[in-house]
Each structure stands twice: as structure tokens, then as C-alpha cells.
Write a structure and sequence with these properties.
Blueprint: H1 3-26, H2 34-50, E1 74-76, E2 86-87, H3 90-104, E3 110-116, E4 119-126, E5 129-135, E6 141-143, H4 146-149, E7 165-172, H5 175-187, H6 196-204, H7 209-214, E8 218-224, H8 235-245, E9 254-256, H9 259-272, E10 280-287, H10 290-296, E11 306-310, E12 315-327, E13 333-344, E14 347-353, H11 357-362, E15 370-376, E16 380-386, E17 411-412, E18 421-422, H12 428-439, H13 451-459, H14 474-478, H15 485-498, H16 503-509, H17 517-527, H18 530-534, H19 538-542, H20 549-560, H21 562-573, E19 599-603, H22 611-620, E20 624-626, E21 635-638, H23 644-652, E22 655-657, H24 659-666
Parallel strand pairs: 2-11, 19-20, 19-21, 21-22
Antiparallel strand pairs: 1-6, 3-9, 3-10, 4-5, 4-7, 7-8, 10-11, 12-13, 12-15, 13-14, 15-16, 17-18
Bound molecules: 2-(butylsulfanyl)adenosine.
């Protein structure tokens, strides 16, 4: 065959096979027998082999899986991948509904969807061509799993319109594929996957796309990252649009105009859940109107216009064999229940945190007790209660120790705290936990440096503080147990890459007491660099709304410590970035809003917005929010029960707004 006729035939085959694949995998309604599909595929593969120049990335032949990767590249989600707030009962849902109605009025309608138990993925298309698939990661940075996503048959490689769009959804493993996979693994003597979600995640984390291709994964798409590129006014219209573009969406979705209808949908699916061919772990309720969604906005983590109802967790009975103690990063001693291994919601559980001594007393937990165990949020094992009537008299009372189980220094109970703490700053357990924290996902996010490797490195005295991580060599790492050349070079690359992280990751990673991931972000945004943050006074810090007295003290104390200064100098010398790289609040000059360059004080109770939200919005418009009223204040927003700040503003003749006026100006 000559090139020209080959080209024509290849195009024909590609189109035909794409259409048949779509009918089979997306519509679940094949129009040709499997044998016919296979015959055409063989013909296409042969022609593409003979004329490789005719192979295109959207050819149906490309789903078999290409070259093996070295590692997954990181992908930045320019539109963050949010998660959802949870509801566990009817009241939570009624509260959600009330909040929505209060914010946007009575004219609301919801879309209920099944909450698919897989893993969130983002798919990017450029001019209708599949360009990139990624995992959620921490919501801002995920991993590039394009090669694996391409092998999922229900993911279109070319859309029915040449648009550039980013869609989000769930990749999952159907129950049948999961059972077949585990059966085959059992026969080969391989470890079994605990549940379909782990199997799906494990498949997409394979560097060899041929493995993912063999795993029979599927998708449901449920959200458009950039809905403004298409002409839709509601979430439900967006889903219909996704259908028209060739995506697989879940057909069990239902529009509900009242919370009663939502509850009915939940009841229905709680009963029908076992009959589904895939696992679900709840129901997602989304406000339908995109305009109303925008009015409600999002918190840092999740949209305010949606919520996930989680099915109640499975509870099982087991025996509490012992209580072990562990020392955390901040010296807190945590008692952990050691349980007779038992299967709960798909995985074997043998440990559960008991948090502190008070909780052990409250629940009247004794060693040897029969206990009820569940997984909170289906992830974290928890002892729910004790079956006291099954006691034999052999059970033993548990007492917290007086000395640290790791370094033997005396434990203290700080004022106002329930926890016992080891306050020895040189306690090896605390140092080790601090190192584990530093490399964790919300901190420096160093792949391949998990708890086990860190513990080994620490035990071998190859690292004693976080700066040592940047001095690790190939020779040192290769000497560790179970470390091959490939993993060592990947690890070194991940360490190197972490140097470029934006400042907030480092600030959080340092483990300054009371400074969580969110506060770290605020600090990085406000101060811009580590030097400026380190030089900040308590007043500078408390001038920021989210930073309270205690946190400010903790930050100032931290940077006053010589050890901290040395550590930061070492990190700097190692080439670790010390600057904030994210979006800065808009500067006053850039903004032409009424807030530009104005100092605003918020006082009293706001009804529609939290203080933080109001502050964020004002700052985004170029305003500055201060904590106290002075001659420099331009504007005071007074909510309900405003007190002395309002009086002072009146005395000084400062302009005063109510919340309504604020909202009006913010929404302009
Ligand atoms: S909506 C901003 N819809 O549940 C929208 N999520 O914490 C966020 N999930 O990470 C997600 N089924 O992996 C949405 N129909 C559905 C879903 C769904 C499963 C997962 C998703 C997300 C998590 C929520």
C-alpha cells in the first residue's frame, strides 16, 4: 500500500474505532461485535507499524500504553482542585441548606450525585485534543499521569468540539475488575489490594503505562475547571455539555429543588448502593446555579456551594491487646491502641489513636477489653466504645507514664492542655517526627522520603536536622535497606526540586509551634520572604487578622532562637528558596476599587461573611484591613453589637458602613 492510501485507511480506522470505543465504553451500548472491533484494531496497528508517521496521539491504538517513565513530573493546578466539606447526618444537610438559602435566597436548586470512591483526576484538553492528565496531589500541585490516563478507554482522546477545557472527575476501578485483579494476584502469590480505590490509585501510580492499561479503570467526570469557556449557567448544564463532548458522566445524578428531595435521594441510594457495579462512599450535593456558586465562593479547601454526605462508617468488634505510647513532633505523648487485627471498610486495622489519657478515662477503656472500632471518614481508625458487659475481670487499667518513653525526661502537662508532653528539645523522637513533618505533602512535599526512609536515615545518623536532607549523597542513600539506584536518583531529584518550593511550604515545614499550613500561607503572602518574616515584631504579626497573640509569640520566639537562625542560614546556603512565589494580594495602585489604598477596620459580628473572608476580599481589591481604629483609618465596617471601635470611629468622624453596604461594594 502506498502512503497516500495508507493515510486514508488509517484515518478511517481511527475514526471508526474511536466511535466504536465511545459506544462501548462511554455509552455502554456497542454497535458492533467485539470481534469486529478487534479485527479493525489489528489492521490499524499493522498499518501504523508500517507507516509510523501516521500514528497520532489521539489514535485509539495509543491506549495500549507507551514507554516506561522514570518518575512522574509535577503539575501545577492553575485552577486549584478543591475537596468537599462533609455532612454525616440529616441535621448537617439541613444546616448546609439553611446557609445556602441565607446567602443566595430561597430560589435554589441542587444537583445530587453519587460520590464515587476512586481518586480525583484533572484532564486538560487543548483545541479538543487530550493534552494532560494529573492527580489531585495537595490540590495545587499534582502529578502528571498523562500516559496512564490515556490508557483508560472511557477518556476521550479527542473531543467532539475543538475546545480547550479542563475537566475534573473520578478515576475508579469497577467492582468486577477489582475482583478479577485480586483473584489473579492471589493466584500469582502477590499482595492483594484492600479495596477498589487503592487498586485504582496503585494502577495510576505505575510508571509503566502498560500496567495501567491492563487494569481496566474507568472514569466519571463531574466538574469543569473553567466553565466560562462554554456557555452554561448551571452545573447540570455543564454535565450535559460534558456528555456532548464525549465524556462519561454519571447518569444517576438528579436535580432536587428542596432539601427534602435531597434526603430522599440519599435514602434511595443508601439502599441501592450494594447493587452498583462500582463503589460509592457518599452523595455529593451541589448548588446548581453557577452564579449562586460564585456568590458563595470557596474557603481555602472547599467550595461553600457543595457538600459531601458520607455514608455511616462500618463498625466492628475486636480486642484491645495493649496500649503503646508514641512521642509526636511537638513532644505530645499519644497513647495508641494495639488491636487484634480486624477488617474494617476494606482494610485491616491493628492500631488506633486514643489521643490522650482523659479520653481513655472517659470511654473507660481497659487493656484486654472488647472494643467497637470504625474508620472515621472511612480512613482513620478509631475506638468508638467499650463493650463493658463482656469483661472477664482480667482487663487491666492503663496509666500514663511519668517519663518520656523515648528519652526518659520527665513529662509535663502544660496549663490548659489535656496532653502530656516531653519538653526536652533534644528528644530524638521529636526530632525524627519533625523531619517527617518537613518532607510531608503540605510541607516540602519530597516524594520518596517517607516515614520509613527518614527513620532509617535518622537512626543511621545521616541526618539530624532538616538542613542535612540537602546534604545527602548518592553513596549514603544507596547504603540504605531496600534502596535501588533508580529510587536513589529519583529521591535526589525530588530533594533538589523541593528547593524551588514557594516560601509557605518551608515556613510550614519548619514546624513552628501553632503555625499550620494555612497560617504559613498567610505569613508567606504578607511578608514575601523569610528574612522579612524573621524580622517581624509581635505587632507586625498581630496586625494580620488571622494571627493571634499566641501564634505571634510563638513565631517571634522561634526566630529569636540561635538554632533556628543557623538552620535557616544553612537551608539558604543549600539553595532552598526563601521567597513567596504565589499570587500576591493586588497592590493599591493596581486596583481601582473604592478599597484601593484604604485602611479598613472590621468590628462587630458580620452575618454573611466571616471576618477572614471580608478581609481577604477587601485586600484582593487593594484595601488594607487593620485591627484598631486610629486617625489613619479610612473606613469602619460595623456589624451587629459593635462596641468601642465603633464609638471611637464616631468620635473621630470616620466613615461607617454596615455589612450590607460592604457587600454591595465588594460585589461591584
Ligand atoms: S465534586 C469542587 N463530585 O470526593 C468540587 N467530588 O472531597 C470538588 N468525588 O476530591 C469535587 N465523586 O475525589 C465531586 N460526584 C462527585 C464526586 C467527587 C467523588 C471525590 C473527589 C473529591 C472528593 C471530595
Amino acid at each position: 500500500m502506498d502512503l497516500q492510501s495508507a493515510e486514508q485507511r488509517v484515518k478511517e480506522l481511527q475514526n471508526q474505532l474511536s466511535q466504536y470505543g465511545y459506544e462501548y465504553y462511554v455509552l455502554d451500548n456497542p454497535s458492533v461485535p467485539d470481534a469486529e472491533y478487534d479485527r479493525l484494531m489489528q489492521e490499524l496497528l499493522k498499518l501504523e507499524e508500517e507507516f509510523p508517521e501516521l500514528k497520532t496521539p489521539d489514535s485509539p491504538s495509543q491506549r495500549v500504553g507507551g514507554a516506561v517513565l522514570d518518575m512522574f513530573e509535577k503539575v501545577e493546578h492553575t485552577i486549584p482542585m478543591l475537596s468537599l466539606g462533609n455532612a454525616f447526618n440529616e441535621q448537617d444537610l439541613r444546616d448546609f441548606d439553611a446557609r445556602i438559602r441565607k446567602a443566595v435566597g430561597e430560589n435554589v436548586s441542587y444537583v445530587c450525585e453519587l460520590k464515587i470512591d476512586g481518586l480525583a483526576v484533572s484532564l486538560r484538553y487543548e483545541d479538543g485534543l487530550f493534552a494532560q492528565g494529573s492527580t489531585r496531589g495537595d490540590g495545587t500541585i499534582g502529578e502528571d499521569i498523562t500516559a496512564n490516563i490515556r490508557t483508560i478507554q472511557s477518556v476521550p482522546l479527542r473531543l467532539k468540539e475543538p475546545i480547550s477545557i479542563e475537566v475534573r472527575g473520578e478515576a475508579y476501578m469497577p467492582k468486577r475488575s477489582f475482583e478479577a485483579l485480586n483473584k489473579a494476584r492471589q493466584e500469582r502469590g502477590e499482595e492483594l489490594f484492600a479495596n477498589p480505590r487503592n487498586a485504582a490509585a496503585g494502577s495510576l501510580r505505575q510508571l509503566d503505562p502498560k500496567i495501567a492499561a491492563s487494569r481496566k479503570l474507568d472514569t466519571f467526570l463531574y466538574n469543569i475547571g473553567n466553565p466560562e469557556v462554554i456557555d452554561v449557567a448551571a452545573h447540570s448544564e455543564g454535565l450535559d455539555y460534558l456528555d456532548r463532548l464525549g465524556f462519561k458522566t454519571n447518569k444517576e445524578r438528579r436535580k432536587c429543588s428542596t432539601i427534602e428531595d435531597v434526603l430522599k435521594y440519599i435514602k434511595e441510594w443508601t439502599e441501592k448502593r450494594p447493587q452498583l457495579p462500582y463503589e460509592i462512599d457518599g452523595i455529593v450535593i451541589k448548588l446548581d446555579s453557577l452564579e449562586q456558586q460564585a456568590a458563595l465562593g470557596t474557603t481555602a479547601k472547599s467550595p461553600r456551594w457543595a457538600i459531601a454526605y458520607k455514608f455511616p462508617a462500618e463498625e466492628v468488634v475486636t480486642t484491645l491487646l495493649d496500649i503503646e505510647l508514641s512521642v509526636g513532633r511537638t513532644g505530645v505523648i499519644t497513647p495508641t491502641a494495639i488491636l487484634e487485627p480486624v477488617k474494617v471498610a476494606g482494610t485491616t486495622v491493628q492500631r488506633a489513636s486514643l489521643h490522650n489519657e482523659d479520653l481513655i478515662r472517659e470511654k473507660d477503656i481497659k487493656i484486654g477489653d472488647k472494643v467497637v472500632v470504625k474508620k472515621a471518614g472511612d480512613i482513620i481508625p478509631e475506638v468508638v466504645n467499650v463493650l463493658a458487659d463482656q469483661r472477664t475481670g482480667e482487663e487491666r487499667e492503663f496509666h500514663m507514664p511519668t517519663h518520656c518513653p523515648e528519652c526518659e525526661s520527665e513529662l509535663v502537662r502544660l496549663e490548659g492542655e489535656v496532653a502530656l508532653r516531653c519538653i526536652n528539645p533534644k528528644c530524638p523522637a521529636q526530632i525524627r517526627e519533625g523531619l517527617i513533618h518537613f518532607v510531608s505533602r503540605d510541607a516540602m512535599n519530597i516524594d520518596g522520603l517517607g516515614e520509613k526512609v527518614i527513620s532509617q536515615l535518622f537512626a543511621e545518623q545521616l541526618i539530624s536536622d532538616v538542613a542535612d536532607i540537602y546534604k545527602l549523597t548518592y553513596e549514603q542513600l544507596i547504603s540504605l535497606e531496600r534502596m535501588g539506584a533508580k529510587s536513589v536518583s529519583n529521591l535526589l531529584e525530588a530533594i533538589e526540586a523541593s528547593k524551588a518550593n514557594s516560601l509557605e511550604k518551608l515556613v510550614f515545614g519548619l514546624g513552628i509551634r501553632l503555625v499550620g499550613a494555612k497560617a504559613a500561607k498567610t505569613l508567606a503572602q504578607q511578608f514575601g520572604s523569610m528574612d522579612r518574616l524573621a524580622a517581624a515584631s509581635k505587632d507586625d504579626l498581630t496586625a494580620i487578622n488571622e494571627i493571634g497573640d499566641k501564634m505571634a509569640d510563638s513565631i517571634v520566639n522561634y526566630f529569636e532562637m540561635e538554632e533556628a537562625q543557623e538552620l535557616i542560614a544553612e537551608l539558604k546556603a543549600a539553595g532552598v528558596n526563601m521567597d513567596y512565589k504565589g499570587a500576591k494580594p493586588v497592590s493599591a495602585e493596581e486596583s481601582d476599587s473604592v478599597f484601593a489604598g484604604k485602611t479598613v477596620v472590621l468590628t462587630g459580628k458580620l452575618e454573611q461573611l466571616s471576618r477572614n473572608e471580608a478581609k481577604e476580599k477587601i485586600e484582593a481589591l487593594g484595601g488594607n484591613v487593620a485591627g484598631s481604629v486610629s486617625k489613619k483609618t479610612h473606613l469602619v465596617v460595623a456589624g451587629a453589637d459593635a462596641g468601642s471601635k465603633l464609638t471611637k470611629a464616631q468620635e473621630l468622624g470616620i466613615e461607617i458602613w454596615d455589612e450590607e453596604k460592604l457587600l454591595e461594594e465588594l460585589n461591584k
